[in-house]
Amino acid sequence: MSRPGPTDPKGPHLIRRRTLLTTALAATAAIGLAACTDDASEGSGASDAGGASDGGGGDPLAGVTVSEDLGAEPTVEFTAPLEVSAAAAEIVVPGDGETIAEGDTIIWRDLYVDASTGKTLQSWWQGAPAGGVQVTAEGIGQAAFDVFTTMAVGSRFVMAGWQQSADGQAYSLLQVADVDRIVSPLRAEGEPAEPSGALPSVTLADDGAPALDAPPEGEAPTSTEREDLIVGTGDTTRAGDYLTMHYTGWKWSDGSQFDSSWERGAPFSFVQGEGRVIQGWDENLLDLPVGSQVMLVIPAAEAYGEDPDAHELGGETLVFVIDVLDAAHTEA
Q1: Radius of gyration of the chain (CA)
Q2: What's 79's domain CATH number?
Q3: At a CB cut-off of 8 Å and minimum separation 6, what does 190 contact?
Q4: pLDDT by residue for the chain (332 residues), tens digit each?
Q5: Is residue 8 one of the residues assigned to a domain?
Q6: CA dist., res. 170 & res. 222, Å (int)
């Protein structure tokens, strides 16, 4: 889901710019979703995705057919241009995994099709990043929430809605996605690492949320330093991953906290290596086993620059403690 940019003091302080096409249509305020039905067809053929809409304008999915072979890239057939005058959704293949619950963060493999032309704009099966969303009514809307909390892992669904690209162009879209998993656990788990003693020490709350034991001391590093706090046992992060994590950030100058996904109750996700977050994050979260916890100390040059007038964190060296919760790889 797109988040506020770094100039918005109410939003996370990591995002450099908005990049919306790679995110879930379910996260748009306009989306309205169909109720899931028990009689959704199963098998290796194709089914008509005839989902209900949120009222007004008819059902844009009535003439859309989506393939059901979960072992292959979905095919989406319809007569273009397809008018999307109301948001809608339908489960194409019901999953047989765990049922999604309120607050779950789910990971999916998806593709986007331009409803006006029938052209595939991006696809995980063709090398685009994976995606996902946290399932809360506030974050995705009540209609979307009502559907996702009856959907199971392993489902394939199709949605019709609207989205805006990074260059501001608006699209009417179809999104087809296969729900791969629920992110769990929501904290680092692994072997404690031996701290160097050169960087601030950390205490963890019962839920895993970190706190600095004391404000940082001494001269701040002049280049980003990474220290392992917990070494996980999961798959290793790599370039192009859709990463999901919890984090808290503090200023080196006084130890004051300026941001925390723990306090929002929502893990943070982004595609690694595409310039969507500050440089210190983009370049220093590779080759980490999922389940790890690391500290990053990032100088201003690799965060928000040296000018405090250009950004509220300009000129500040930043300290982050990051729990790597999930790393969804590209098809490549």
Answers
A1: 21
A2: 3.10.50.40
A3: 230, 231, 232, 233, 289, 291, 292, 293
A4: 233 233 333 344 554 333 333 333 333 322 222 222 223 222 323 334 433 334 445 789 999 999 999 999 999 999 999 998 877 888 999 999 999 999 999 999 999 999 999 999 999 999 999 999 999 988 876 767 878 899 999 999 998 888 877 677 788 999 999 999 999 999 999 999 998 999 999 999 999 999 999 999 999 999 999 999 999 999 999 999 999 999 999 999 999 999 999 999 999 999 999 888 999 999 999 999 999 999 999 999 999 999 999 999 999 999 999 999 999 999 86
A5: no
A6: 42
Residue indicated by tokens 């940082």:
216
Q: pTM for the complete prediction?
A: 0.84
Are 123 and 250 members of one domain?
Answer: no
Spatial distance between the Cα atoms of 38 and 155, rounded to a whole number of angstroms: 12
Task: Report yes or no: 183 and 130 within 8 Å, Cβ to Cβ.
Answer: no
